[in-house]
Backbone:
């Protein structure tokens, strides 16, 4: 009886290990979507109400080269749109960099300029959360799929 139990336990353990996917493969499969900013925080403090933009949306396509677009509405009610920019997922699967050729104003104090190297902290079918350093502070974007 013990040997049957041991065999079943080993088989179950090996089955679970065999089902585990490489982090980058899972990331590559989930990241191409259209994501809208749901919550913005700085050093773990919610700053969503301080944003000078609204409706910040990112679209990531299957191809990282020319596969990143974003848009939002600034404080003057003008649309900021950039299409066919780039993003890259790094081999460890837990980070991504974005390139934006236009300035993206976040708050009165903070503006995104150029590259953003971001650590992915959550990626699921419905949520994409990443954080990045800007002016020595940790900024976090909590995105939802639209």
Residues:
């Amino acid at each position: 009886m013990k040997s049957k139990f041991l065999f079943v336990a080993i088989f179950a353990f090996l089955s679970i290990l065999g089902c585990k996917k490489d982090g980058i493969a899972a990331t590559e499969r989930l990241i191409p979507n259209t994501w809208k900013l749901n919550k913005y925080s700085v050093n773990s403090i919610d700053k969503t109400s301080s944003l000078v933009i609204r409706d910040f949306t990112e679209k990531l396509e299957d191809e990282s080269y020319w596969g990143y677009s974003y848009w939002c509405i600034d404080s003057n009610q003008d649309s900021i749109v950039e299409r066919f920019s780039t993003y890259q997922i790094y081999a460890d699967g837990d980070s991504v960099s974005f390139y934006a050729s236009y300035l993206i104003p976040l708050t009165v104090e903070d503006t995104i300029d150029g590259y953003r190297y971001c650590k992915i902290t959550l990626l699921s079918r419905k949520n994409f959360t990443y954080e990045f350093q800007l002016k020595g502070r940790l900024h976090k974007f909590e995105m939802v799929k639209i």
